[in-house]
Protein backbone atom coordinates (compact mmCIF):
# COMPACT_ATOMS: atom_id res chain seq x y z
CA UNK A 1 0.00 0.00 0.00
CA UNK A 2 2.82 2.40 0.94
CA UNK A 3 6.36 2.33 -0.43
CA UNK A 4 8.73 5.18 0.38
CA UNK A 5 12.25 5.14 -0.99
CA UNK A 6 15.17 7.17 0.36
CA UNK A 7 12.88 9.97 1.49
CA UNK A 8 14.34 13.12 2.98
CA UNK A 9 12.63 16.18 4.45
CA UNK A 10 14.45 19.45 5.03
CA UNK A 11 12.95 22.52 6.66
CA UNK A 12 14.44 25.93 5.98
CA UNK A 13 14.21 27.97 9.17
CA UNK A 14 15.91 30.97 7.61
CA UNK A 15 19.30 30.98 9.28
CA UNK A 16 19.78 27.22 9.07
CA UNK A 17 18.30 24.17 7.42
CA UNK A 18 16.96 21.33 9.55
CA UNK A 19 16.93 17.84 8.07
CA UNK A 20 14.06 16.01 9.77
CA UNK A 21 14.31 12.84 7.63
CA UNK A 22 17.66 11.68 6.25
CA UNK A 23 16.91 8.93 3.76
CA UNK A 24 14.03 6.79 5.02
CA UNK A 25 12.83 3.73 3.12
CA UNK A 26 9.77 1.82 4.28
CA UNK A 27 7.08 -0.57 3.02
CA UNK A 28 3.65 -0.94 4.61
CA UNK A 29 1.42 -3.59 3.06
CA UNK A 30 -2.35 -3.65 2.74
CA UNK A 31 -3.95 -4.90 5.96
CA UNK A 32 -0.86 -4.44 8.15
CA UNK A 33 -0.91 -2.98 11.66
CA UNK A 34 2.29 -0.97 12.10
CA UNK A 35 3.48 1.14 15.05
CA UNK A 36 6.02 3.92 14.54
CA UNK A 37 7.95 4.94 17.66
CA UNK A 38 10.55 7.56 18.36
CA UNK A 39 11.54 10.20 20.91
CA UNK A 40 10.73 13.89 20.53
CA UNK A 41 12.68 15.31 17.60
CA UNK A 42 13.26 11.91 16.02
CA UNK A 43 11.39 12.68 12.80
CA UNK A 44 8.37 10.58 13.68
CA UNK A 45 5.87 13.44 13.24
CA UNK A 46 7.45 14.40 9.92
CA UNK A 47 7.23 10.80 8.74
CA UNK A 48 3.61 10.65 9.88
CA UNK A 49 2.77 13.80 7.90
CA UNK A 50 4.29 12.34 4.76
CA UNK A 51 2.60 8.95 5.17
CA UNK A 52 -0.70 10.76 5.74
CA UNK A 53 -0.23 12.93 2.62
CA UNK A 54 -0.20 16.04 4.82
CA UNK A 55 3.27 16.96 3.54
CA UNK A 56 5.61 16.00 0.71
CA UNK A 57 9.23 14.78 0.75
CA UNK A 58 12.09 17.10 -0.16
CA UNK A 59 13.68 14.25 -2.12
CA UNK A 60 12.94 10.56 -2.63
CA UNK A 61 9.97 8.60 -3.94
CA UNK A 62 6.59 7.95 -2.33
CA UNK A 63 4.27 5.33 -3.81
CA UNK A 64 0.69 5.09 -2.52
CA UNK A 65 -1.32 2.17 -3.89
CA UNK A 66 1.21 1.91 -6.71
CA UNK A 67 1.07 5.58 -7.73
CA UNK A 68 4.13 7.81 -7.32
CA UNK A 69 2.74 10.81 -5.45
CA UNK A 70 5.77 12.66 -4.08
CA UNK A 71 5.22 15.52 -6.53
CA UNK A 72 1.43 15.63 -6.31
CA UNK A 73 -0.26 19.01 -5.89
CA UNK A 74 -2.04 19.93 -2.67
CA UNK A 75 -5.42 19.30 -4.34
CA UNK A 76 -4.30 15.82 -5.43
CA UNK A 77 -3.03 15.01 -1.93
CA UNK A 78 -6.27 16.32 -0.43
CA UNK A 79 -8.19 13.90 -2.64
CA UNK A 80 -6.12 10.97 -1.34
CA UNK A 81 -6.63 12.09 2.26
CA UNK A 82 -10.37 12.44 1.76
CA UNK A 83 -10.85 9.12 -0.02
CA UNK A 84 -8.18 6.82 1.37
CA UNK A 85 -7.10 7.85 4.90
CA UNK A 86 -8.94 8.21 8.18
CA UNK A 87 -7.14 10.34 10.77
CA UNK A 88 -7.29 9.97 14.56
CA UNK A 89 -5.41 12.55 16.63
CA UNK A 90 -4.43 12.79 20.29
CA UNK A 91 -6.58 15.87 20.95
CA UNK A 92 -9.70 14.54 19.15
CA UNK A 93 -10.17 17.73 17.02
CA UNK A 94 -13.94 17.72 17.39
CA UNK A 95 -15.98 20.88 16.82
CA UNK A 96 -17.42 21.98 20.15
CA UNK A 97 -20.64 23.55 18.86
CA UNK A 98 -22.01 20.53 17.04
CA UNK A 99 -23.00 17.10 18.31
CA UNK A 100 -21.39 13.71 17.81
CA UNK A 101 -23.19 12.66 14.66
CA UNK A 102 -22.65 16.06 13.04
CA UNK A 103 -18.92 15.83 13.81
CA UNK A 104 -18.81 12.39 12.17
CA UNK A 105 -20.66 13.68 9.11
CA UNK A 106 -18.22 16.55 8.47
CA UNK A 107 -15.68 14.80 6.18
CA UNK A 108 -18.53 13.30 4.17
CA UNK A 109 -19.77 16.76 3.24
CA UNK A 110 -16.55 17.36 1.32
CA UNK A 111 -17.24 14.23 -0.71
CA UNK A 112 -20.55 15.62 -1.89
CA UNK A 113 -22.52 12.81 -0.24
CA UNK A 114 -26.24 13.48 0.22
CA UNK A 115 -27.51 14.41 3.68
CA UNK A 116 -29.46 11.17 4.12
CA UNK A 117 -26.52 8.98 3.12
CA UNK A 118 -24.21 11.03 5.35
CA UNK A 119 -26.52 10.48 8.29
CA UNK A 120 -26.72 6.73 7.61
CA UNK A 121 -22.95 6.36 7.30
CA UNK A 122 -22.34 8.41 10.45
CA UNK A 123 -24.83 6.30 12.42
CA UNK A 124 -23.14 3.11 11.26
CA UNK A 125 -19.72 4.44 12.25
CA UNK A 126 -20.92 5.50 15.71
CA UNK A 127 -22.48 2.07 16.20
CA UNK A 128 -19.10 0.47 15.38
CA UNK A 129 -17.48 2.37 18.27
CA UNK A 130 -20.35 1.75 20.70
CA UNK A 131 -21.79 5.26 20.77
CA UNK A 132 -25.18 4.89 19.10
CA UNK A 133 -26.75 6.20 22.33
CA UNK A 134 -24.66 9.40 22.34
CA UNK A 135 -25.25 10.74 18.84
CA UNK A 136 -26.87 14.03 19.96
CA UNK A 137 -24.30 14.79 22.67
CA UNK A 138 -21.81 17.60 22.11
CA UNK A 139 -18.12 16.99 22.90
CA UNK A 140 -18.40 18.79 26.26
CA UNK A 141 -21.04 16.24 27.27
CA UNK A 142 -18.77 13.28 26.55
CA UNK A 143 -15.82 11.79 28.42
CA UNK A 144 -12.35 11.87 26.87
CA UNK A 145 -12.65 8.26 25.83
CA UNK A 146 -16.04 8.87 24.24
CA UNK A 147 -14.70 11.90 22.38
CA UNK A 148 -11.88 9.79 20.97
CA UNK A 149 -14.40 7.17 19.89
CA UNK A 150 -16.36 9.88 18.06
CA UNK A 151 -13.09 10.86 16.38
CA UNK A 152 -12.55 7.24 15.33
CA UNK A 153 -16.11 7.09 13.99
CA UNK A 154 -15.39 10.24 11.98
CA UNK A 155 -12.30 8.55 10.54
CA UNK A 156 -14.36 5.46 9.68
CA UNK A 157 -17.41 7.11 8.15
CA UNK A 158 -15.97 7.34 4.65
CA UNK A 159 -14.78 3.70 4.80
CA UNK A 160 -11.10 4.47 4.13
CA UNK A 161 -8.72 1.54 3.63
CA UNK A 162 -6.13 3.10 5.98
CA UNK A 163 -6.34 4.59 9.48
CA UNK A 164 -3.51 6.81 10.72
CA UNK A 165 -3.68 7.22 14.50
CA UNK A 166 -1.35 9.82 16.06
CA UNK A 167 -0.93 9.13 19.81
CA UNK A 168 -4.62 8.12 20.03
CA UNK A 169 -4.36 7.18 23.72
CA UNK A 170 -2.07 10.02 24.79
CA UNK A 171 -4.82 12.14 26.37
CA UNK A 172 -6.74 9.22 27.91
CA UNK A 173 -6.70 7.25 31.15
CA UNK A 174 -5.63 3.62 30.95
CA UNK A 175 -9.18 2.22 30.78
CA UNK A 176 -10.29 4.56 27.97
CA UNK A 177 -6.98 4.04 26.19
CA UNK A 178 -7.47 0.29 26.30
CA UNK A 179 -10.93 0.65 24.78
CA UNK A 180 -9.53 2.75 21.92
CA UNK A 181 -6.78 0.20 21.25
CA UNK A 182 -9.38 -2.57 21.20
CA UNK A 183 -11.34 -0.67 18.54
CA UNK A 184 -8.19 -0.26 16.44
CA UNK A 185 -7.52 -3.97 16.81
CA UNK A 186 -11.01 -4.81 15.54
CA UNK A 187 -10.58 -2.44 12.60
CA UNK A 188 -7.33 -4.19 11.70
CA UNK A 189 -9.01 -7.57 11.94
CA UNK A 190 -11.68 -6.34 9.53
CA UNK A 191 -8.97 -5.69 6.94
CA UNK A 192 -7.95 -2.07 7.37
CA UNK A 193 -4.35 -0.92 7.33
CA UNK A 194 -3.49 0.74 10.67
CA UNK A 195 -0.52 3.05 11.21
CA UNK A 196 -0.12 3.93 14.88
CA UNK A 197 2.23 6.72 15.99
CA UNK A 198 3.22 6.44 19.65
CA UNK A 199 6.01 6.98 22.16
CA UNK A 200 4.64 4.23 24.45
CA UNK A 201 6.09 0.73 23.97
CA UNK A 202 3.05 -0.85 25.62
CA UNK A 203 0.81 0.81 23.02
CA UNK A 204 3.20 -0.09 20.19
CA UNK A 205 3.06 -3.74 21.20
CA UNK A 206 -0.56 -3.86 20.03
CA UNK A 207 0.74 -3.71 16.45
CA UNK A 208 2.10 -6.50 14.27
CA UNK A 209 5.29 -4.60 13.49
CA UNK A 210 7.21 -1.90 15.34
CA UNK A 211 9.35 0.66 13.53
CA UNK A 212 11.73 2.82 15.59
CA UNK A 213 12.94 6.13 14.16
CA UNK A 214 15.72 8.24 15.64
CA UNK A 215 17.58 11.28 14.30
CA UNK A 216 15.68 11.11 11.02
CA UNK A 217 16.59 7.50 10.26
CA UNK A 218 14.88 4.17 10.85
CA UNK A 219 16.90 2.60 13.62
CA UNK A 220 15.04 -0.65 14.05
CA UNK A 221 12.29 -2.51 12.24
CA UNK A 222 10.92 -5.85 13.19
CA UNK A 223 8.09 -8.04 14.37
CA UNK A 224 6.14 -7.24 17.49
CA UNK A 225 8.08 -7.57 20.73
CA UNK A 226 6.32 -10.02 23.04
UniProtKB/TrEMBL annotation:
GO terms for cellular component: membrane protein complex; plasma membrane. Residues 2-225 form the ABC transporter domain. InterPro entries: AAA+_ATPase (IPR003593), ABC_transporter-like_ATP-bd (IPR003439), ABC_transporter-like_CS (IPR017871), ABC_transpr_LolD-like (IPR015854), MacB-like_ATP-bd (IPR017911), P-loop_NTPase (IPR027417). One of its GO terms (molecular function) is transmembrane transporter activity. Pfam families: ABC_tran. Keywords: ATP-binding, Nucleotide-binding, Transport. PANTHER family: ABC TRANSPORTER ABCH.1, IMPORT ATP-BINDING PROTEIN. This is Macrolide ABC transporter ATP-binding protein.
